[in-house]
Amino acid sequence: MFDLNAVQAAVRGAGCDGWLLYDFRGQNVLAQRVAGVAPKLSRRWFYFVPASGEPRKLVHAIEPASLDHLPGTQKTVYRRWQDLEAGVGALVSGTKRVAMEYSERNCNPYIGRVDAGTIELVRSFGCEVVGSGDLIQQFEATWDDDQEKSHFEAAKLCRAAYDVAFGFIADEIRSKGRTTETAVQARIMRHFADSGMTTYSPPIVGVGPHSGDPHFDTSPATDAPVERGSFVLIDLWAKMNRPRSVYADYTRVAYIGSSVPEQYAKVFGIVAAARDAGIACVKDAFAAGRPLQGWEIDNATRAVIERAGYGEFFTHRTGHNIGQEVHGNGAHIDGLETRDDRRIIRRTCFSIEPGIYLPEFGVRSEVDVYIDAAGAVHVTGGEPQTEVHTIVV
């Protein structure tokens, strides 16, 4: 349900004269979700929400009722391209600063959903176009009570998936001498199905050098044995199989044997310390009531790995927003691939998942962090891993 009062309050809080929502053939999923507009529309539509006053609509004659469910009686219906351009001018008439799904220099492609030509058109009417990143996450990335509940439910079951996976590995090695990456992956997927969960993609199970590939694709084509002496990384994500549920996403590592070799223990210790530095950055900021941006958490985490001399082996951002998609549309924990300056706000969730990826093996330790409505910081998925798990067989 579109809440006009809440949207206009957010627009005013962002220092904008209005928010211009626009889509063409599903290119701007963010605008679709905020406005509650079906992605199947075939023509361009615009919905302008001023900081105060009545919203205005611009729709095509083929789909004249496409925005009728939204507040506002001022509707212009266009047929010709000239009418469309004039209509956009009328929408933003009298405004100086308009928010759109735009990212200057494409520094944040998760927000940059409006094409350059449309931005040029809006600017031609004397408007400054600014990014709507913080506006979007207030209405797209925040969770309601049911979604919060679904995350904690999924978090518990995802944590249990590690017990299932590690137990399966132990049983298979004891009885058969080995198992495989794909067999472990299949066992986790069965656990998800049995638990009423779903996921857009199966988990990563990587052994040895495969664990050193951050986005390794576990598949029959590259299947490797899991046996005594193996180092294994498991990255899994899932959500409850019901509408509007949100994901949980975690990574843990294990060694098949009773004593973890020093090389694994050393690198894990550095990664875990980096993870904990990121968590501390979040907790300190919210305890102090200080605004916090995604890049700051990335910097705090990355600094630990860089000081240890492994900076070049930490090749990705520290984390990502989590929502109905595992990579959600709120602030990411990124000062590397982008400088994500969106604020970390209440009722949003994100991962903290530093890693060190070497040719022989890689270590990643991933937790989810949720900020509740009161500003309390929750690290979900059970206690963070403090040492490489041993699977004694």
Quick summary:
The protein has 393 residues and is of the alpha+beta class. The chain is built from 9 helices and 19 strands.
Describe this structure in words.
The structure is a single chain. The protein is of the alpha+beta class and 393 residues long. The protein folds into two domains: 4-140, Creatinase/prolidase N-terminal domain (Creatine Amidinohydrolase, Chain A, domain 1, 3-Layer(aba) Sandwich), CATH 3.40.350.10; 145-391, Creatine Amidinohydrolase. The chain is 33% helix and 21% strand. The protein has helices at 4-13, 29-35, 81-91, 116-123, 133-140, 145-176, 181-194, 262-288, 294-307, and strands at residues 18-23, 45-50, 56-60, 74-78, 97-100, 128-131, 179-180, 197-198, 204-207, 225-226, 231-240, 248-256, 321-322, 348-352, 355-357, 362-364, 367-371, 377-380, 389-391. Helix 6 crosses helix 7 (181-194) and helix 8 packs antiparallel against helix 9. The longest helix has 32 residues, at 145-176. The model has no long low-confidence stretch (mean pLDDT 97).
Keywords:
393 residues, alpha+beta, Creatine Amidinohydrolase, Chain A, domain 1, Creatine Amidinohydrolase, 2 domains, six-stranded mixed β-sheet, five-stranded mixed β-sheet, 9 helices, 19 strands
End-to-end Cα distance:
54 Å
Ranges with pLDDT <50 over ≥5 residues?
A: none
Count of beta strands: 19
Q: Any idea what the shape is?
A: elongated
What would the average pLDDT be, to the nearest integer?
97
Looking across the biggest beta sheet, what order are the strands in?
4-3-2-1-5-6
How many domains? The number is 2
By CATH reckoning, the class of the largest domain would read: Alpha Beta
